[in-house]
Amino acid sequence: MEGQVALVTGAARGLGRAIALALAEAGADIALGLRQLNNDHGLAKEIVALRRQVLPLQMDMTQLQQIRDGVDAAERHFGKLDILVNNAGIAPDNFAENVTEEDFDQTLAINLKGTFFASQQAGRIMIRQKRGCIINMGSQAGFAALPTESVYCMTKAGISHLTKCLAVEWGKYNIRVNAVAPTFIHTPGTEPALSDPAFRAQVIQNIAALHRIGEPIEVAGAVVFLASPAASLITGETLLIDGGWTAR
To answer: What whole-number distance in Å separates Cα of residue 126 and Cα of residue 120?
Structure first.
């Protein structure tokens, strides 16, 4: 990844943080898309310590202008944009009959609308460059029904199909578009749910082959692979990282 420039959205913590660090360790310079510019939990300093360049960006993924400005700022600063990782996402937990319009709109705004328009803005740059790589954050929830997660599941199924559509449309410009689809991973976002012993035991049982919760680096490693020359003939795919959950 030496000499590559990557923009990671939702980079401050969890999977975004792990992905940004893994790409930096692989040699890439990193633009950090942050919901709050001054709250990266020390991530920028960690990337600088790896002797990579870093650019924090204000990118609330519900704000279209911030998305466009952030992508453009990354290109201006580094002179190019090789990789976009659409990591930002939310997952309100509620039974379908109790979902509010606010939760519905917010989930679609970040998970689908934000992903699409970040891809669009990066795609415009990559079309001019005649090269690029976009990696979207899907989920096993796009392939398996999860109770209390109907809206989230719907958005992640949409991510997988959007990934195919963009891959087919932009392949002629040498732009690859793929997605990763993790199971439950140890992150600050999943910690409240996984702290319930009964829920944790059920999740571990459902991860049919390996029977363990995933770690952020196991997702980040897949992202680095898909962004690398080793994956040069892979596009339009969603790589499940689910420990066998959907293999049942």
So the answer is: 10
For 244, half-sphere exposure in the C-beta direction (CA atoms, 13 angstrom radius) is 10
Q: What tokens appear for 243 in the block?
A: 């420990």
DSSP 8-state code for residue 151: H
DSSP 199-229: HHHHHHHHSTTT-S-B-HHHHHHHHHHHHSG
pLDDT tens for 138-170 read: 999 999 999 999 999 999 999 999 999 999 999
Contact at 8 Å (CB) between 3 and 118? no
User: Which amino acids are annotated catalytic?
Assistant: 152
CB-based contact 29:5 (threshold 8 Å): yes
Radius of gyration for the alpha carbons in the chain, expressed in angstroms and rounded: 17
Of 64, 57, 75, 73, which Cα lies nearest the Cα of 8? 57
Question: How far is 138 from 160, CA to CA, in rounded Å?
Answer: 7
Q: Which DSSP letter does residue 185 get? A: B
- Whether the model clears a pTM of 0.90, i.e. scores above it, the answer is yes
Confirm if 30 and 52 have CB atoms less than 8 A apart.
yes
The pLDDT tens digits of the residues spanning 2-15 come to: 999 999 999 999 99
- Ranges of beta strands (E only) in the chain are 5-8, 29-34, 54-58, 83-86, 132-137, 175-182, 238-241
What token pair was written down for 141?
Answer: 């929830």
What class, spelled out in words, does domain 5-247 have in CATH?
Answer: alpha beta
Which residues are CB-contacts of 53 (< 8 A; sequence separation ≥ 6)?
Answer: 29, 30, 78
